[in-house]
């Protein structure tokens, strides 16, 4: 008999980082588990597994959620964005650039989740205040940076995105 | 690594179909909404339903209807939606505050109103991994025979940790429960039970479908929550208060509810009654605060010192009532928690 992990008896089709994706998986798996184990997308990090650290955040239909607490079975037809889908045209997203430039990532374990959470914030509110940034990423623990560099990087990305929009119009 | 245990999965599209499933499965099945409480509990084997029945595909459970006559909120409305909806202000502020103070933004995007009302009770000896619980031979609430908080107790004393429960009780909310055999609407305060295991009188074949609130024009309400960190944490003490004030600022009606101080939210009836017909002056507020603190009997089974949590009850009732009479208490609130909205 196959070990239970390899009993891929469930299937869903969903949009992963803009690409239609079919995946077969063991039915008890969470979105986090299928992303990492069945689809090889290991950018999304596996932290506490209980909704206490925020390391597994992804965007589900544009909203930040914790992928360790979402059943994969519930994701059919949904849009999922992970850190792998953040950059465009082969380049880094302005948030990724700013995080690299300003030392907002040290060990990096919390970074993918904070990047997608910050993207959702900037999509919804292009000019957030420092307090709004703090609130938006208050569900993401970072034990390295003390958060200041993260706030500064989100603000730097905010300005860069606003500049890009101005020059494009 | 903690995996979910195996389960059968159903995702009905209508309330009728969901009621039929629960009627057949009873306690074998658990309704799944946001999953932010149930799934961690399943990973730790605190709850191991044979079947999960998702409520997320039942469209009617996602509706919010606010009318002059009152409001109806579907059980699957998320806490983010409630916190962001500016219609939940004045009389309904306590609900929006409570929703906005649950856990973290990501969790509030998933967690639902119905789920938070039905949130499992919590305890330092229960909210642990399977191996941890096994090492103490489990506890009364799950798989064991001894309550490690009160070893002579035959009753589980796990703590009610819902934020929206106390707020909704202060607003006089009713809940609609639907089963195959019919439906009933009960006051939320009658749904809760002061027992850490049987803390809610929802039958296993019933779905908590909707919360209804009267028109609270003329009322003001607020919610105060104690926790160690400004985000993430469950409440370890909370106070919800609602008052209806007459033109000359005397109290026409009042409700005060203390959360996380027992296995259910506690209505501080005497405290509320003591305010009737009086202006919200310092003496009235102090008396009500002392009466409310009397019913709070926190135990040593969650974060913070239990005697201090009891003292905070009186402080919170004071802040809440001062806020409702119009005092600016933002500095007091910000001294221990963030203000989620203005």
Structural commentary:
The complex is a heterodimer of chains A (169) and B (342). With 169 residues, chain A is α+β, with helices and mostly antiparallel strands. Chain A has two domains: 4-85, Beta-grasp domain (Ubiquitin-like (UB roll), Roll); 94-168, Orthogonal Bundle (DNA polymerase, domain 1), CATH 1.10.150. Chain A has five helices and five strands, in the order ββαβββαααα. In chain A, helix 2 packs across helix 5. The mean pLDDT of chain A is 95. With 342 residues, chain B is an alpha+beta fold. Chain B has a domain at 59-118 and 159-334: CO dehydrogenase flavoprotein, C-terminal domain (Enolase-like, domain 1), CATH 3.30.390. Chain B is 31% helix and 20% strand. Chain B is built from 13 helices and twelve strands. A five-stranded antiparallel sheet of chain B has the order 4-5-8-6-7. Chain B has a four-stranded antiparallel sheet with strand order 9-10-11-12, with helices on both faces. A three-stranded parallel sheet of chain B has the order 1-3-2, with helices on one face. Chain B is globular. The mean pLDDT of chain B is 95. The chains are: A alpha+beta (169), B alpha+beta (342). At the A-B interface, strand 4 and helix 4 of A face helix 2 and helix 5 of B.
């Amino acid at each position: 008999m196959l070990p239970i992990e390899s009993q891929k008896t469930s299937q869903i089709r969903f949009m992963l980082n803009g690409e239609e994706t079919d995946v077969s998986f063991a039915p008890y798996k969470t979105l986090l588990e299928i992303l990492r184990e069945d689809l090889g997308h290991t950018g999304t990090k596996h932290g506490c597994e209980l909704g206490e650290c925020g390391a597994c955040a992804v965007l589900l239909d544009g909203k930040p959620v914790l992928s360790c607490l979402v059943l994969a079975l519930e994701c059919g037809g949904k849009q999922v964005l992970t850190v792998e889908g953040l950059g465009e045209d082969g380049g880094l997203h302005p948030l990724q650039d700013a995080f690299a430039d300003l030392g907002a990532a040290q060990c990096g374990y919390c970074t993918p989740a904070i990047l997608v959470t910050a993207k959702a914030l900037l999509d919804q509110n292009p000019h957030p205040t420092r307090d709004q940034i703090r609130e938006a990423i208050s569900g993401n623990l970072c034990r390295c940076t003390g958060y200041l560099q993260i706030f500064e990087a989100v603000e730097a990305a905010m300005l860069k995105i606003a500049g890009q929009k101005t020059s494009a119009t | 690594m903690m995996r979910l245990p195996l389960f059968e999965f159903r995702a009905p599209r209508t309330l009728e179909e969901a009621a039929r499933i629960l009627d057949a499965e009873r306690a074998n099945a658990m309704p799944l909404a946001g999953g932010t409480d149930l799934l961690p509990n399943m990973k730790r084997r605190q709850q191991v339903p044979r079947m999960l029945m998702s409520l997320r595909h039942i469209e009617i459970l996602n509706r919010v209807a606010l009318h002059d006559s009152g409001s109806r909120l579907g059980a699957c409305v998320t806490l983010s939606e409630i916190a962001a909806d500016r219609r939940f202000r004045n009389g309904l502020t306590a609900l929006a505050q409570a929703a906005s103070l649950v856990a973290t933004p990501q969790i509030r995007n998933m967690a639902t109103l119905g789920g938070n009302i039905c949130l499992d009770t919590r305890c330092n000896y229960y909210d642990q991994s399977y191996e941890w619980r096994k090492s103490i031979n489990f506890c009364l609430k799950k798989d064991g025979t001894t309550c490690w908080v009160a070893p002579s107790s035959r009753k589980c004393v796990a703590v009610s940790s819902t934020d929206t429960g106390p707020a909704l009780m202060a607003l006089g909310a009713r809940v609609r429960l639907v089963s195959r055999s019919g439906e009933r609407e009960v006051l939320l305060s009658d749904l809760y039970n002061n027992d850490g295991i049987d803390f809610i009188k929802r039958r296993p074949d019933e779905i908590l479908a909707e919360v209804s609130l009267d028109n609270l024009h003329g009322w003001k309400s607020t919610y105060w929550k104690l926790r160690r960190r400004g985000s993430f944490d469950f409440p370890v003490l909370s106070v919800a208060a609602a008052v209806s004030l007459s033109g000359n600022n005397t109290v026409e009606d009042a409700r005060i509810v203390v959360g996380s101080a027992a296995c259910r939210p506690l209505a501080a009836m005497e405290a509320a009654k003591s305010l009737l017909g009086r202006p919200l002056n310092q003496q009235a507020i102090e008396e009500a605060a002392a009466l409310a603190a009397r019913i709070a009997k926190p135990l040593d089974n969650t974060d913070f010192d239990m005697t201090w949590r009891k003292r905070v009850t009186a402080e919170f009732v004071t802040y809440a009532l001062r806020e409702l009479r119009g005092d600016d208490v933002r500095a007091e609130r910000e001294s221990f928690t963030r203000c989620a909205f203005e």
